[in-house]
Amino acid sequence: MRRTGAAVGRLATDVVLPAGDGPFPAVLIRTPYDRTRHLPEARGWARHGFAAVVQDVRGRFGSAGSAGSARPAGSAGERQAGEWRPYAHELTDGTRTSRWIRRQPWSDGRIVAAGASYAAHCALVLALDAPRDARPDAVLVAVPALGAAETAREPSGVERLSARAGWWAAHGDRPDSDGTALAAALAADPGLLTHLPLVTLPERLGRELPSWPALWRERDRGRPVTRAAGATTPLLAVGGLHDHFADDTAALWHAWGGPSARLLTGPWGHGLTAEPGPGAGPAHRVNLGELYVRWARRALAGDLAPGRRGALALGGADRWLPATTEGAPYTPELILLRGSAFTADPGHPVRSDDLAVPREGPVDRCLFATRPLPSTLDVVGPARVRLRGTADTPSADWAARLVALLPDGNAERLAVGIVRRDQPPGVETGFTVELGRLARRLPAGTRLRLEIAGHHFPAHARNPHTGEDPVTAVRLTGSRREIVPAGVRLDLCVLPSPPAPVDPAMEVLR
Asked: Looking at residues 444-464, what average pLDDT do you find?
């Protein structure tokens, strides 16, 4: 095994080669998170016969701000300041790097573009938008951040606040990273994310973040998924049911037009198996590195069966199901507990980080609950809430949160959805709040609690209720809501009988 430093333009690049003379297929990982942190991963690929190419994206860690000069990048530990513009240069720089790989004597011309989170975005734009001679032969993406617009907003258009503030505070417009930046700022000012306007957050962080305002001007949500229909390479998409990009990962898999598409989704967060979520069991701890290698070999050899396949973890049951599994429609009876009329007060919003429901004070949400489940339910498939309601403001967000009240006394968040409605005040309308896909075994005795509120803060920005942009608004006002209890319906999908488990590796490698 040999490790060498290289420069593609001024992009710092490490290459780890297998033992032997080659040539070898290559795995390309382009990352903003410091290529040196990927050295163990690169060595793993090399041990299995792949040339691993890991590169700092433009303006990050060892890579200078311009990719056009052929100046050497230097040693693995060297850091060069440069311009870092998230999502701006990845197609150009990835294309240059892919062509460079194919010219190397150790390369057999075949490339797997791989990465997680932002690095997955780098792999996807190369697979979907690069010229034919630069496109990879297979693409492997984990918890993919599809694009700036996808990360900034929910499919309904509502702004994702805390996750984006954390990422920009840690990584935005700087050559290195500080993962503690937002936590430190919140410790100094617990109300940091309540200050208005949100667009001036960098001033309160004491940092220059010119890309922060630009993020909120990104409106082209859905383009990567649309482009996926024209894909020509095999795909392996890996996601977490508790990851905020879970729906985007599944949408990419559904839309993929290449010869084969595989999906692996477990009860994990954005950190995948290192970050297990509720319902994770021993069977859900997968050796992803070994699976990636086996999939890459089969993908490059053309040995994967055509079509969409994969595995979906059933949380709470320690088993896996085919990724295409979906239950039959199930609509539990909802009992109104309180709050058919409530006030969405942006000064005291319903919090995303607290499942407790206040017993006293103003009513800030509508609450429903089911009776205890008479038997175990395997809830697998999309979930949604249908409701009828009014708001006395011209703009209103409607957040629906589904919580499992388990027999052992614990409460577990199952799903959240949020939509924005702009309409004349006081006009009653019916609409649907999508909650995403569930894959969870609920034991007998569980009660489901459905909350309908006007905020889900700080996960999402507060709607000012005036019709102004929540990112630039400087004034917030309360919104009086009324819900028609008989018009509220929770739609779930439930498996009619206990499912037969599958082997996740077999489903991915088939």
From this structure: 98
Q: Is 260 within 8 Å of 276 (Cβ atoms)?
A: no
**Tens of pLDDT, residues 146-171:** 999 999 999 899 999 999 999 999 99
CA dist 223 → 40, 117, 129, 369 (Å): 33, 17, 11, 38
Contacts 24+ apart (CB under 8 A), 164-171: 164/215, 165/193, 165/201, 165/458, 168/201, 168/209, 168/211, 168/212, 168/215, 169/205, 169/207, 171/32, 171/33, 171/84, 171/86
Do 392 and 480 form a contact (C-beta atoms < 8 A)? yes
Q: What is the DSSP string of 456-508?
A: -BTTBPPP-SSSS-TTT------EEEEE-GGG-EEEEEE-SSPPPP--HHHHH
Pairing, β 24-31 against β 11-17: unpaired
The per-residue pLDDT for range 81-106, each reduced to its tens digit, is: 348 899 999 999 999 999 999 999 99
Helix (H) or strand (E) holding 379: strand 377-391
Angle at 456 between CA 455 and CA 462, to 5 degrees: 55
Give the distance between the most distant pair of CA atoms in the chain. Answer: 74
Q: Report pLDDT for 9.
A: 82
Domain stop point among 322, 341, 376: 322
Is the Cα dihedral 240, 246, 249, 251 positive or negative?
positive
In 267-315 the beta strands, taken as DSSP E runs, fall at 268-269, 272-276, 307-314
Mean pLDDT of the 333-337 span? 98
Number of domains in the chain: 3
Q: Tell me, what CATH number does 295's domain have?
A: 3.40.50.1820
Mean pLDDT of 213-238: 93
Residue range of the domain that includes 187: 160-215
What is the spatial distance between Cα 211 and Cα 202, in angstroms, rounded to a whole number? 10
Does residue 506 lie in a domain region? no
Residues 363 and 476 in one domain: yes
pTM for the structure as a whole: 0.93
Report the SS3 class of residue 429. strand
